[in-house]
Specification:
Elements (H helix, E strand, L loop, with lengths): L4 E4 L13 E6 L3 H14 L5 H17 L8 E9 L2 E7 L5 H6 L11 H8 L2 E6 L19 E8 L5
Antiparallel strand pairs: 1-2, 2-3, 3-4, 4-6, 5-6
Length: 162
Amino acid sequence: MVTAEIFACPEGIPGEPEAPVCERLFPGLPSQVGEARRWVRAVTGPASGDIAVLVVSELATNAIMHSASGRPGGKFAVGVQARTSGVLIYVRDQGRDAARDAAGRWAPENGHGYGLRIVASLAVVFGATAAAGGPGGELRDPHDPLAAGRCVWCFLPGEATR
């Protein structure tokens, strides 16, 4: 059995300081996408609906398929911040891997490439930043194994998380 570790539960993202961000580090294996879904549901409780679970599934799958997180020994992190108006979800990866990224480009004929389109259709807003900056611009620990990667995040409205 593969175990994931809690990497950080930093202070909240600017804008709603009352809610801490909880983050968990997972091995970069396909089997861990399901673990990430279960963790998001456990962290957010009944407030996390199927949409939040679907979003983390898509973002974690992208991290494994399109970044260095999917290489042997790779890792990805999932973060959640419950807010009064909804929930912020993000996935941090280990950064670009040209070979993995090129192999997984959008290809509707074989069922690939819909993940971010699904996320965009469900979220109020979504984006990507350098992981060292995090979704709220906070600086991360330089010993963080994902510091050189990227962070893909989205905000789901309150009604989407019920």
